[in-house]
Amino acid sequence: MTEQNGQPVVSPVMLPDLGSGAPPTEARSLRSLAAVPMTVSVVLGKASMTIAEFESLEPGDLIRLDRAPDATVDLFINGVHAAEGDVIVIDDHVAARIGHLHLEAGDE
């Protein structure tokens, strides 16, 4: 910092003109994001265990989850809870049928 007589020297700064600064319409901004990839995760349930318990697991061991077999599953988009749904089977694939979407911020 440059000082003159013990006081900071203040100089004007010229910034480029950025236009009107009007925000894009919501529809246009969402369209521009339409091709952005997201990671969708479906969580069947959770379990807690110690590191020692985890290290002792062997092929064929079972981990009991915190949900009933007919409970809904949680769907996360990029780690954010976004929906609940049901597990279904389509041909030879497992799928999640959306039951409730969390579209509003804080809608849990």
| Spatial strand sequence of the major β-sheet | 3-4-5-6
Query: Could you say what the CATH architecture of the domain at 38-108 is?
Result: Roll
CATH class of the domain at 38-108: Mainly Beta
Rg: 26 Å
Largest sheet: 4 strands, antiparallel
Helix count equals 2
Can you tell me the CATH topology of the domain at 38-108? Surface presentation of antigens (SPOA)
CATH homologous superfamily label of the domain at 38-108: SpoA-like
Rough outline = elongated
Structural class: mainly beta
How does the SSE layout of this entry go?
Layout: E1 3-4, E2 7-8, H1 26-33, E3 40-43, H2 51-55, E4 73-77, E5 80-90, E6 93-101
Antiparallel strand pairs: 1-2, 3-4, 4-5, 5-6
Task: Explain this structure.
The structure is a single chain. The protein has two helices and six strands; from the N terminus they run E-E-H-E-H-E-E-E. A hairpin with a 2-residue loop joins strand 5 (80-90) and strand 6. It is mostly beta strands and 108 residues long. A four-stranded antiparallel β-sheet has the order 3-4-5-6, with no helix packed on it. The protein has a domain at 38-108: SpoA-like (Surface presentation of antigens (SPOA), Roll), CATH 2.30.330.
